[in-house]
Design a protein that fits this description.
heterodimer, A: mainly alpha, Rna Polymerase Sigma Factor, Chain: A, Arc Repressor Mutant, subunit A, 8 helices, about 0% strand, B: mainly alpha, 4 helices, elongated, Putative zinc-finger domain-containing protein (chain B)
């Protein structure tokens, strides 16, 4: 038994688990991601010593988390998770015929106070969960996992223009949801 | 003059690709006179910052720990992996 694994799990297991959970939002998947990371860490033992062990393990985990997200996407029919019909006309619920805002965006800021801030973040989290399925996958890949657009397009077999349109729509829906549900105290 | 619809599209796309010089100039011009699009731009920036905070808050939340059962399972898995090699 590699004694390192015990040390790694004891010292960094909780952090790695939280890192995975923050992105995958599922406890079982987060546990699996930590396990995959440990297996990969032992197998390749590529720790170069020029960074901390935690940074090294987190680097491996990051890849595992994106891999898992991809796998989840591949398990679904692609037509269920992308919205190729999203075009100019799909923004009609936000703009009038002349391209003016139907409802002008309101100003809101991230609250300074810690309690309010966590309320704000949970509203955002709820809004994100409510995103239409056809927009959620790409939004998660781009704005949560911060994957490069080029890789997203390969993954979903779409053009950059498709990706931009869907991200535009997803962000628009999300900011509107925040505006409607975040009432300043 | 660029419409709000066009401007907001470019504001979103600026997060995904570099805008051309002429797009940038037209957008700048629009933002000089349009409060609503300025607020939209701020909202998207805030969205980025907030998504980042959600992750960082969870990463630093020591109340969330890897369940012991999972820890044991991981160790078991690695031991059986090594024995089979």
């Amino acid at each position: 038994m590699h004694s390192n694994v015990h040390d790694w799990l004891n010292e960094h297991g909780d952090y790695l688990y939280r890192f995975a959970l923050a992105r995958l939002k599922d406890t079982h998947q987060a546990e699996d991601a930590v396990q995959e990371t440990m297996l990969a860490a032992i197998k390749h033992n590529s720790f170069a010593g020029d960074s901390s062990v935690r940074t090294w393990l987190t680097g491996i985990l990051k890849h595992k988390v994106v891999d898992m997200q991809r796998k989840l996407i591949r398990e679904q029919p692609i037509s269920d998770i992308i919205d190729l019909d999203a075009g100019e006309e799909s923004m009609d619920d936000f703009f009038d015929k002349t391209g003016h805002w139907l409802d002008k965006p309101q100003s809101f800021d991230m609250p300074d106070h810690a309690l309010e801030q966590s309320q704000f973040l949970s509203v955002l989290d709820a809004c994100m969960q409510k995103l239409p399925k056809k927009l959620k996958a790409i939004f998660m890949l781009r704005d949560v996992h911060e994957m490069e657009n080029e890789n997203i397009c390969k993954e979903l077999d779409i053009t950059p223009t498709n990706a931009w349109v869907m991200l535009y729509r997803a962000r628009m829906v999300l900011r509107k949801c925040l505006e409607m549900n975040w009432v300043k105290g | 003059m660029m419409t709000c619809k066009q401007a907001s599209k470019l504001i979103s796309q600026s997060l995904d690709r570099p805008l051309s010089w002429s797009e940038l100039m037209q957008l700048k011009l629009h933002l000089m006179i349009c409060g609503a699009c300025n607020r939209f731009k701020k909202q998207l920036n805030l969205l980025r910052v907030a998504l980042q905070s959600i992750r960082t808050n969870m990463e630093n939340n020591s109340a969330i720990t890897l369940p012991l059962a999972a820890k044991a399972r991981i160790i078991d898995q690695i031991e059986s992996d090594q024995q089979s090699q």
